[in-house]
Amino acid sequence: MALRHPSRSNSPIRLAGKRITMRPLAASDFRAWSEVRARNADWLTVWEPRRQPTLPDPTTDRSAFTSRCVQRDRDRVNGVAYQFGLFIDQRVAGEVNLNNVVRGAMQSGTIGYWIDRHHAGQAYVAEGVGLLMQFAFEQLGLHRVEICIVPRNTNSRRVMEKLDIRDEGVALRYLEINGVWEDHIRYAMTIEEWTIRREEIAAAWL
User: Fold this and answer.
1) How far apart are CA 184 and CA 186, in angstroms?
2) Beta-carbon neighbour count of residue 184 at 10 Å?
3) Kindly report the CA angle at 12 between 32 and 25, in degrees rounded to 5?
4) What does the alpha-carbon distance between residue 62 and residue 185 come to, in Å, rounded to a whole number?
5) What is the CA radius of gyration of the chain?
6) Closest C-alpha among 27, 28, 1, 3 to residue 14
7) How many domains does the chain have?
8) Are 61 and 5 contacting, i.e. CB atoms less than 8 angstroms apart?
9) Which end of the chain has the lower number of beta carbons within 10 A, N or C?
10) Mean pLDDT of 96-123
11) How are beta strands 166-177 and 144-149 bridged, if at all?
12) pLDDT digit string, tens, across residues 24-73
């Protein structure tokens, strides 16, 4: 993996795995990102929080997408979230994000992801999650990351199986997904587990 940046500077972050690269999305990515999102709307929105209908849609509104990118850059500089476009052959294919970064006694964050259905099942997301875990533990110094998944979302759960991430059980009505408060399986890894498994994960994915 290649990584070049101070974690809370204005410098762009670049993460590189065996087959993918990840970097923050920029305004210039609007056309490619919106095409992927529009084409995969039915595939993705059933697993995401419902968008407020009174707000502009970044999938169709360039200015809304630009504002989204600016806010995400601000979140990165403030150290509260690190959000990446996932690129395959230099084309936008999804996102892998580290959200809800909490410092103090917790030192934790939450990973979320999505991918173009055309590329699903090829372990690109597993590679991206492995990259993001390495970044979270080795660059940000977090103690724990978690991934929360609706139990029936078998595609997302398969990513956890490929990486052999620990299952901590079900949190009832944990997040609002597509207008419904859904149970979520909570998967997690700590820095102690990462230290033990780092070489194994790096050899397989990074």
Assistant:
1) 6
2) 20
3) 20
4) 35
5) 16
6) 3
7) 1
8) no
9) N
10) 97
11) unpaired
12) 999 999 999 999 999 999 999 999 998 888 889 999 999 999 999 999 99
Looking at residue 49, which CATH number applies to its domain?
Answer: 3.40.630.30
Q: How confident is the model at residue 195 (pLDDT cuts 50, 70, 90)?
A: very high
pTM to 2 decimal places: 0.93
CA-nearest of 127, 198, 105 to 113 is 127
Contact 20, 87 (CB under 8 A): yes
Residue corresponding to tokens 């609706």: 150
The position carrying tokens 């949190």 is 171
Q: What is the pLDDT, as a whole number, of residue 6? A: 43
Q: Which two tokens stand for residue 170?
A: 């079900």
Total residues found in the chain within this entry:
206
CA dist., res. 127 & res. 21, Å (int): 10
DSSP result, the chain: -EE-S-TTSSSPP-EE-SSEEEE---GGGHHHHHHHHHHTHHHHGGGSPPPPTTSPPTTT-HHHHHHHHHHHHHHHHHTS-EEEEEEETTEEEEEEEEEEEE-TTT-EEEEEEEE-GGGTTSSHHHHHHHHHHHIIIIIS--SEEEEEE-TT-HHHHHHHHHHTPEEEEEEEEEEEETTEEEEEEEEEEEHHHHHHHHHHHHHHH-
Q: Which long-range contacts (CB under 8 A, 24 or more apart) does 56-65 make?
A: 58/34, 59/34, 60/34, 62/27, 62/30, 65/27, 65/30, 65/33, 65/34
